[in-house]
Design a protein that fits this description.
100 residues; alpha+beta
Length: 100
């Protein structure tokens, strides 16, 4: 028996002889806490994704919408050179300024 096989109150009762109501409540609370933590981690990962620099093989002006990182790397000439752009506005595809 593993925790993954105990999905609910019935599973706990059937698999653990003498399980008390308090144990089941504690088990359910832990299960709820883990589900909540899983949702929080998923949300955090989605948020972090928005801060990653953007990459592509084209000029970003008019082609790439700025995310929270506001940085884009044009890898057209990679690996010989990479052109970096910055956009001070988030959520627009115009206003990119070449940095290097």
């Amino acid at each position: 028996m593993t925790l993954q096989t105990l999905k609910g109150w019935r599973d706990v009762r059937e698999n653990l002889q003498g399980a008390t109501q308090k144990f089941v409540q504690d088990y359910s609370a832990v299960k709820d806490d883990l589900s909540s933590a899983e949702r929080s981690i998923a949300t955090l990962l989605e948020t972090i994704e928005g801060f990653k620099p953007l990459f592509g093989a084209q000029t970003p002006e008019g082609n790439v919408t700025s995310n929270a990182s506001q940085v884009y790397f044009d890898t057209t000439a990679s690996p010989a050179s990479v052109t970096m752009y910055f956009n001070e506005s988030v959520g627009v595809d115009t206003g990119w300024v070449q940095i290097s």
